[in-house]
Structures are given as structure tokens and as C-alpha cells.
Design a protein that fits this description.
Chain lengths: 109, 116
């Protein structure tokens, strides 16, 4: 059974700090997704990766296939980054997402 | 870019009534859509996989007669919560996969359902 674990569950940081959220999964995957869920509930897909590293603005996502581990980094964090960040994976031949429990990030001005 | 639109954003209904939530892919065809439910401070849980032109595939523990899913076209899937009860109050959200590998996933805005 595929399990996706995230850490930390909650993270509070000062504006400007470098943020790291970790995600581990238990079985081989075809892709790892990082999602951002705002307080209103809407979900935005931040990254989809199957290897290496991707960068978009202040966000960086990395994945290590051998270690079954991915990280999401936020540089120069800002209060508007406050949200729940969720990692999820899809397995080969299956489009269904398996979700992590989410990390609630709060950036204090 | 690709957009998945969900409607309504929020709805309040009385116990025993039915509520329909629509999920549309606006600029691409989605042969497969997914419906999720999320209770407060909990993870998203997959309810069912909606397949265009065929029956939906429900996850274990999800009542198919209570949560009716129809995927009549390549751009529209609907979720109907029948005979709603207060415990059905939740956040419902859909997603659709784009591309041959299905790995580009887009989410609807979500629908907040409150049953009173």
C-alpha cells in the first residue's frame, strides 16, 4: 500500500526565512505533485516532477527517486505564502493521487 | 492555461434534499475526472474516479447510490449528493488530468456543502 508522509505538520516562520517541507513515499511512483491549498479551500498545483529539480519563482521542488523523498523549498518567505502545502503522488498506469497529510505553513510578518 | 471550473462554490441545503455539483474542464477534454472530499483539518480523500461514457469507480466505503456521478461528456462531470445529511457537510473538489500520460492535474475551485 502506498503511503505518503509529510513533515512537519505545522510550521511557523518569520517573513524572509527559508522554508523546507519534506515528503516521503513508500512505493515507486510516476510523478510527485506539490499542491498549495489556500484557506478558502482552492488548490493550486505548484509542481509535478518525476526526477531532479524544478524552480518557479521563489519555489523550488526536488525529488530523489532512490530515496523516495521530495522537498519543497520557499526562499524569502512572505505572509502570502501562508497556506497548506500538500504532496501527492501518482503511480504508473494509475492517475489517482495519494495525498500526504499536508503541512500548514504560517509566515509571520 | 488549462482551467477546471467547479460550481457552485458553496451551497446550503436542507436534510433529505439532493445537491448537484458540476466540474467542467474549460479548454481541454478530460476522459477522467476525480472527486475528492475533505473534512476540516483532514486530508483530501478520493471518493471516486469519473470516466467519460462509463460508470464511475468508487473508493471503498463510498456509497455509490448516495454519491451519484455522471460523466456524460468529455468536459463535464457531475456529483450529486442524494438525500443529504448533516454529516455530508464537507468540502468537495474535483480534478482532471490533461495529456496522454495524465500527469498534468488541474483542480476545480472546490464546493463547500453545508447540510442543515
Amino acid at each position: 500500500k502506498n503511503e505518503v508522509e509529510q513533515s512537519p505538520q505545522n510550521l511557523t516562520a518569520q517573513e524572509g526565512e527559508f522554508i523546507t517541507i519534506n515528503c516521503s513515499y513508500s512505493v515507486g511512483i510516476s510523478a510527485l505533485h506539490w499542491l498549495q491549498q489556500h484557506p478558502g479551500g482552492g488548490i493550486v498545483s505548484l509542481f509535478m516532477l518525476s526526477s531532479g529539480k524544478k524552480k518557479h519563482g521563489r519555489l523550488i521542488a526536488t525529488i530523489n527517486i532512490q530515496e523516495k523523498h521530495s522537498s519543497l523549498h520557499i526562499t524569502a518567505s512572505h505572509p502570502r505564502d501562508s497556506a497548506v502545502y500538500i504532496c501527492a503522488d501518482t503511480n504508473f498506469g494509475n492517475e489517482k493521487l495519494t495525498f500526504g497529510t499536508g503541512t500548514r505553513l504560517t509566515i509571520i510578518p | 492555461g488549462a482551467v477546471v471550473s467547479q460550481h457552485p462554490s458553496w451551497v446550503i441545503c436542507k436534510s433529505g434534499t439532493s445537491v448537484k455539483i458540476e466540474c467542467r474542464s474549460l479548454d481541454f477534454q478530460a476522459t477522467t475526472m476525480f472527486w475528492y472530499r475533505q473534512f476540516p483539518k483532514q486530508s483530501l480523500m478520493l471518493m471516486a474516479t469519473s470516466n467519460e461514457g462509463s460508470k464511475a469507480t468508487y473508493e471503498q466505503g463510498v456509497e455509490k447510490d448516495k454519491f451519484l456521478i455522471n460523466h456524460a461528456s468529455l468536459t463535464l462531470s457531475t456529483l450529486t449528493v442524494t438525500s443529504a445529511h448533516p454529516e455530508d457537510s464537507s468540502f468537495y473538489i474535483c480534478s482532471a488530468a490533461r495529456g496522454s500520460t495524465g500527469n498534468t492535474i488541474y483542480f476545480g475551485e472546490g464546493s463547500w456543502l453545508t447540510v442543515v
